[in-house]
Amino acid sequence: MGRVLRTASAMVLCASAVNAGGIERSAQSVALLFEEGNYVEFNMGRASPDVSGTQMFPVPDASNSGDMAVDYNTYSLGLKLRVNDKLDFALIMDEPIGADVAYPIASGYPYQGSVADLNSIATTALLRYKLPNNFSVIGGIRALTTSGTVQLFNGYGLSTSKETDLGYVLGFAWEKPEIAARVALTYNSAITHKFDADEVASGYSFDTVFETEIPQSLLLEGQTGVAKDTLVFGSVRWVDWSAFDISPAIYTNAPENYFNDALVSYEDDTITYTLGVGRRFNENWSGAVFVSHEAGTGGYAGNLGPTDGATALGLAATYTRDNLKITGGVRYVMIGDAKTEVPSAFLGGECANEDCGTFSEFEDNTAFAFGLRVGYSF
């Protein structure tokens, strides 16, 4: 099939800067390990989401939130080395999770002026050992550094320490190079951060400590040639988002707790499906089209992340010349509709596991993502 077509499924990564599930911004693929010989790459992406909602309580269509999702960039680096005939090594630096929220000021929407920022950097070292019959095992460690800040309309503020903690990666793969066939299953462990936090509530500042688990995930990737110069590829990704919870001590007990319980949490896990077709046009050019879908989980979403599932369409193209490979991609995301729950403070008491009703509806929202990858074999 040739080097150009064998990596067609990796084109998807260039246009995947927006992920609907939780706060994820990287699929943590191990495709880099399957590049031929020694290889280095640089990736950059730009995401432009447009997420707005309408206040429904106490009066329907009372006010519009305006676009509360901020455009953002993502970057990653990857290095793959062929150690010997049996062993390959890869080092990946990326931004696996993140959030950029800013409700416009003077919109009349109750959460106007609320902002949130979450940043992360992960460094992952991987080894792939080749076994007989085209099987291989994959393993590695991942160091994740995370920090965040929040400032809410009601005067509550949060600033966390920058914490670095370790996780691990395990997986196995099978391939048949003659037909560009490959299947890889990888597991990324959960990573727990213990943050030192500076919380502000009722005009007072508090030094507190809380823990947050960055969830475990499982990724199944596959591809195979189906005709001359044509490849079909896909993936299924599960993320344990129901285990993710940001609950600072003062926030969860303060009278200003307008969000009922956790600052950020998710009721259900997510499963994302991707399917695409890659085609080599000549020795220099190849392209791919793909679609991905993440079903909504229902229930209420949080006001700092008012989305529920997504469907995306994408295009990517790769130009190869000698040892240089340049890939560009674009992705259009139809973000799933979501409802947020009436804050308990607006009702004069706690919801206490009861349905407080719909506070806002976020509908017909979209996002565009653009990606560029430059790779070099040596």
Automatic annotation (TrEMBL):
Keywords attached to this Swiss-Prot or TrEMBL record, sorted alphabetically, are: Cell outer membrane, Membrane, Signal, Transmembrane, Transmembrane beta strand
Entry keyword Nucleus: no
Is-annotated flag, keyword Cell membrane? no
Superkingdom of origin: Bacteria
Q: Which Pfam families match?
A: Toluene_X
Where would you find this protein in the cell? Cell outer membrane
Checking SUPFAM superfamilies in the record gives: Porins (SSF56935)
What InterPro entries does this protein's entry cite? OMPP1/FadL/TodX
Specify the signal sequence span. Answer: 1-20
Q: How does it sit in the membrane?
A: Multi-pass membrane protein
- Which protein family is it in? Belongs to the OmpP1/FadL family.
- Protein name in the entry: Transporter
Which species is the source of this protein? Rhodobacter flavimaris
